[in-house]
Design a protein that fits this description.
52% of the residues lie in helices and 19% in strands.
Length: 431
């Protein structure tokens, strides 16, 4: 819940609505308190002048000395609770009305002689002394009920008005939320969605600007991909002709070196073409049900470092693209073999089933990389400083292709590395 609120707090719309609601709530409470104070009967000015004479009649009915039966009948029929104290008398119409000394009472203002008033919790208290007797009265809820009803009606009406205003503001800001979501999608690479450009002029202009930006970004990316694919395709023909001509030369060290260079160029062109195909979100995968452990075993058997590989494979079946998964494993093993030596120890390959996922791990004990370089290892053509050596080979496309393959399968890839201790790659794919 806390993480959800933190994410929502990053939204301008959420913060505007929060500040608006907070200010409206404060205003509502202030107005409600003001209305409540204004409509609440004031005991001295509103109640005492009317009640004092009325109570004189009640005391006359009770008599001196007091007739407790009469007092009980009056308390039952009138909106008062009564307590009588005096010589030989200590009586109360209700157990909750305590002795007079329990309350803090003060003399009533002139001209009310012998009258004391006070307040206890929600009760208004009035004490009248007649001779040796003291008569304590508390006003019933019915005296204040009307004002409380008016208070709640006003509070509900004000709350309803604030709620309607909140909903109207939320509706007004809804296009901004949609624009924010679209910007997030653009950041994630989804450039196909378009915003509705209807509504107020300012928001319509903003939505139109976001749509044009998205279209221009998509056009630039398509142009870049098209150019890269065209160049890669065009390179294949001269590379093939060069390979044929080299085969016709007299065998020797120079010929073999040139052939190796051509193989690297062909591998680079193939990797570029494959990365562009995988980078297209509409490119389909040729998935089929297969035994993943058998597929890994076959890749290991054909790999140049097979003698150094130790495999711990659980029998797992999954829906995967066989060719892409083979390429993924080959690239991971190539990296592990390229940046470690037989003296460092074996290359460990693991496969296990974890709930609805299959987990593939490839670990070596080679040179490793620095922690700040790990996030960039899956970028195209990026090679860490420790790998920029001619004898290691590679062009920085291996892990980039692995990342694309994993993303195309809807999975995750994590890289952990410690300089001088080795690197571990964990791939999680849906089964």
């Amino acid at each position: 819940m806390l993480n959800f609120l933190r994410r929502r707090w990053q939204s301008l719309v959420f913060r505007l609505l929060f500040y608006f609601l907070l200010s409206m709530l404060a205003i509502g409470l202030l107005l409600a308190a003001s209305f409540a104070y204004r409509f609440q009967p004031h005991f001295r000015s509103d109640i005492l002048p009317n009640v004092e004479r009325y109570i004189d009649y009640i005391i006359a009915d009770i008599g001196t000395p007091p007739d407790l039966d009469t007092a009980a009948n009056l308390a039952a029929s009138l909106p008062f609770e009564i307590r009588v104290e005096g010589p030989g008398v200590d009586w109360s119409s209700t157990p909750r009305l305590r002795p007079v000394y329990s309350y803090r009472l003060r003399p009533a203002p002139p001209p009310y002689d012998g009258v004391f008033i006070g307040h206890h919790r929600r009760d208004e208290l009035l004490l009248v002394e007649r001779g040796s007797y003291r008569y304590l009265f508390t006003l019933d809820e019915r005296f204040n009920r009307g004002s409380r009803q008016r208070f709640w009606v006003l509070f509900v009406v004000l709350g309803g008005a604030l709620l309607l205003l909140y909903l109207a503001i939320r509706r007004l800001f809804r296009p901004i939320a949609a624009i924010s979501e679209q910007v997030d999608k653009i950041g994630d690479g989804d450039l196909e969605q378009r915003l509705d450009e209807s509504g107020s002029r300012e928001l319509a202009l903003l939505a139109g600007g976001v749509n044009r930006m998205s279209e221009r970004i998509r056009s630039m990316l398509d142009a870049k991909s098209g150019l890269l694919l065209a160049i890669s395709h065009e390179l294949r023909s001269p590379l093939t002709r060069m390979r044929v001509n080299l085969e016709l030369l007299e065998p020797g060290e120079t010929q073999q070196q040139l052939i190796e260079d051509l193989r690297e160029m062909e591998a680079l062109v193939g990797a570029i073409l494959e990365s562009e195909r995988l980078g297209d979100r509409h490119a389909p995968l040729n998935k089929s049900r297969c035994a993943v452990h058998e597929l890994i075993e076959s890749v290991i058997a054909d790999h140049a470092c097979r003698d150094r590989i130790v495999a711990k494979l659980a029998p797992v079946e999954a829906e995967v693209d066989n060719l892409r998964l083979r390429l993924l494993l080959k690239n991971l093993l190539d990296n592990a073999g390229r940046y470690s030596s037989p003296e460092d120890g074996p290359i460990e390959v693991g496969l296990q089933a974890l709930q609805q996922q299959l987990v593939i791990t490839v670990t070596d004990a080679g040179i490793g990389v620095e922690a700040d370089e790990i996030p960039r290892l899956t970028e195209a053509f990026y090679r860490p400083d420790s790998a920029r050596q001619r004898d290691t080979g590679g062009y920085g496309l291996g892990l980039y292709l692995c990342h694309l393959i994993v993303v195309a399968h809807g999975g995750e890839m994590h890289i952990d590395s410690v300089p001088g201790q080795g690197t571990g790659v964990t791939v999680k794919l849906a089964r």
